[in-house]
Amino acid sequence: MSVNQQLVQNPRLVIGRICDFINISFEEIMLEKYLTTTKDIVLENEPWKMSLGEPISNRNGRKFDKLFAPEQQSYILKKLSEVMIQLNY
Predict the structure, then answer these.
(1) What is the pTM assigned to this prediction?
(2) What sign for the dihedral angle of Cα 15, 21, 27, 32?
(3) How far apart are CA 8 and CA 29, in angstroms?
(4) Buried/exposed 19-34: b ≥16 CB within 10 Å, e otherwise
(5) Cα–Cα distance between 18 and 4 in angstroms, integer?
(6) Which positions ≥6 away from 77 have C-beta within 8 Å?
(7) For the chain, which residues make up each domain, given as ranges?
(8) pLDDT, tens only, 3-49
């Protein structure tokens, strides 16, 4: 399962791991405050960022499967798994 899929399914766990990795404390408000904080950091000329203030969800479905051929997917997943091992995931 990809990190994005894990984030959608269990944001508390994934954000907690990110916090551990960057050595900060996880706070429950992190799961809520981003909804309002994004209004302060997304500029009008950045429409691609507008969805940052929406709840975490999987809107792309199987985009990975559509964009990459099977051999490309294997290569990407292999490289990502190497990074995940380095990060102790």
Answers:
(1) 0.51
(2) negative
(3) 17
(4) eeeeeeeeeeebeeeb
(5) 13
(6) none
(7) 3-86
(8) 777 888 888 998 999 999 999 999 988 888 776 777 777 888 888 77
Distances (CA, A) of 66 to 12, 41, 57, 83: 28, 31, 19, 23
The structure tokens listed for 63 are 């985009």
Count Cβ atoms below 10 Å from residue 6 Cβ, excluding itself: 14
Q: What does the chain come to in residues?
A: 89
| Structure tokens belonging to residue 67 | 């964009």
Looking at this protein, which amino acid is placed at residue 63?
Answer: K
Asked if residue 70 lies in contact with residue 8, where contact means CB atoms within 8 angstroms, the answer is no
Q: Judge contact between 7 and 14, C-beta under 8 A.
A: yes
Element (DSSP H or E) covering residue 88? none
Task: In whole angstroms, give the CA distance from residue 24 to residue 18.
Answer: 9
